[in-house]
Every structure is written in C-alpha cells, then in structure tokens.
C-alpha cells in the first residue's frame, strides 16, 4: 500500500535480501524514492515526489490528489518534521534541495498532533488546517465544504481543524456548509450571504431534479463548469430544466465556474442587480 513507505532496514528485517530489493526496483515493482526509502509501483506521483524530498504529502497537494476543491496550486506541498534533514529535490533523489530556493516546493515544518511514522501523507485534518493558511478565506471555506461533502471529513472533525490554526480563523467556522457540491457553489453562497439574501442549497423540484441554490424564493442560481456542461446534449437538458423552472415562476441565472472564481465582483454585481430589481 502506497499510504506508507518502507525503509531498506525494514525490508531486510522482513527477510528480503539486497539482491531481491534491487530486482524489484529494476522490474518496476518498487520505486526507490530516495536513499533507503521505497514505495510500491502504484504510488501516486505527488506522493513519490514528497517522499523523495524527505517528508510526506500535505496541504493543497494532498487535497488535490483526494479530489477536494482547491482554487489554485502550482507547488508541491511537503510536510517535514523539525528534525528532518538531507532534503532532496522532488525531481531527482541525488540532488540536494536548496532550502533558500525550493523551486516549486512549499515546505511545512509544523509539529503534527501524532507521530506520522512511515506515512506518506498527513491526516486530512492536518492538510485542511494547512490549506486554510495557504489559501484565501473563501477558498479555505470551499475546501472544507468539499471535504465534508465528499465525506473525507466529518462534522465532528471540523473543530479539530480549527484547533490547529490561529484563533483569527475561527470567524470562518459559521460559514462552512458541507451541502455545497462544488467550490464555485460555495463562492456563490458566500456572495449571497454578503448581500444579505436568503437562500437554500440543493433544492429538489419535481421533473427538474436538484438545483444548486434558490435565492429569496424566486431566483434559481446554477453554477456550471466546463467539465459537466460542455456538450450540446447537456446544454439542451439544462435549457429544458430552465423552461420547467420558468413555468413554476422561477427565474434562472446560470454562472460559469470561471466567472465565479475569477470575476467575483462582476458576479456579485449581477446578483445584486437582479435582487434589487425584484424588491430587495
């Protein structure tokens, strides 16, 4: 299992010989991530690179690998213990990592609540706590929503996440809602909250199904991503859903994920214009 790595000494203790270990590496059944540290062949690339550095995968890199929403990330996030040494480049186990210029690697030196042992990744609670600090507040809320929605985090664990971050982050706790099924949906929810609108999430209509948000009892907002709405068949289905909602007296505002995440001011102005015109 790639969730843990094995050292050469542990493999010797299990009865393997140096020749057997070398043969497994040459056959592609083992990966020598760094000197005396081995992973199975199915280990994800991000995990291999984190172990090669000398630590374990964490923060935004781990969340991305698990399918948890992350607004953006271009670095490999690696957790190291305070006693870690002899760090290596994530791309070359023979090249020493320059700590003054880690080149696309974000090192986290925090002390973990529990000894990680040979784990290749930190616990999801730790990863989310670190991601709160590495992201903007709205992106941090979206990541927590996503982890809850995917059942990678439980409601009972949410206080554990906040216990690992500075007290100022406690202001985000009331904003978390695991019903949000995407990061853009969380962002729109936060916009609606800022505007003082009333809203509900994941509302079901007969012959329509679930919609992302219903605002002030009359406006349906759908958050569309390119991944799920790019082909004509899906777009036609969406238009017919909109017609069915219109027959029930609902207006529909479709927003793209790109606009929600990267042009939030314009999205807020659009929602504010609609709600103001209709009695707010």
From TrEMBL:
It comes from Microbacterium trichothecenolyticum (Aureobacterium trichothecenolyticum). This is Restriction endonuclease type II-like domain-containing protein. InterPro entries: Restrct_endonuc-II-like, Restrct_endonuc-II-like_dom. Residues 188-271 form the Restriction endonuclease type II-like domain. Gene3D superfamilies: VSR Endonuclease (3.40.960.10). It comes from the Bacteria.
């Amino acid at each position: 299992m790639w969730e843990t790595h094995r050292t050469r000494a542990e493999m010797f203790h299990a009865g393997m010989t140096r020749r057997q270990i070398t043969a497994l590496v040459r056959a592609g059944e083992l990966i020598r991530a760094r000197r005396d540290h081995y992973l199975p062949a199915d280990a994800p690339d991000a995990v291999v690179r984190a172990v090669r550095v000398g630590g374990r995968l964490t923060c935004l890199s781990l969340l991305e690998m698990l399918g948890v929403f992350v607004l953006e990330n271009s670095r490999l996030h690696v957790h190291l213990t305070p006693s870690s040494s002899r760090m290596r480049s994530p791309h070359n186990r023979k090249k020493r990592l320059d700590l003054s210029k880690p080149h696309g690697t974000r090192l986290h030196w925090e002390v973990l609540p529990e000894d990680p042992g040979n784990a290749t990744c930190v616990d999801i609670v730790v990863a989310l706590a670190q991601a709160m600090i590495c992201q903007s507040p709205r992106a941090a809320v979206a990541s927590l929503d996503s982890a809850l929605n995917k059942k990678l985090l439980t409601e009972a664990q949410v206080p554990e996440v906040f216990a690992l971050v500075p007290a100022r982050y406690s202001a985000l706790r009331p904003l978390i809602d695991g019903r949000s099924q995407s990061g853009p949906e969380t962002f729109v929810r936060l916009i609606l909250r800022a505007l003082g609108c009333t809203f509900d999430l994941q509302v079901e209509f007969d012959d329509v199904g679930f919609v992302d948000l219903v605002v002030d009892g009359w406006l349906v907002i759908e958050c569309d991503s390119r991944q799920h709405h790019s082909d004509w068949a899906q777009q036609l289905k969406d238009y017919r859903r909109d017609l069915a909602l219109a027959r029930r007296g609902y207006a529909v505002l479709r927003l793209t994920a790109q606009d929600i995440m990267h042009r939030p001011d314009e999205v807020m102005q659009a929602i504010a214009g609609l709600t103001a015109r209709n009695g707010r």
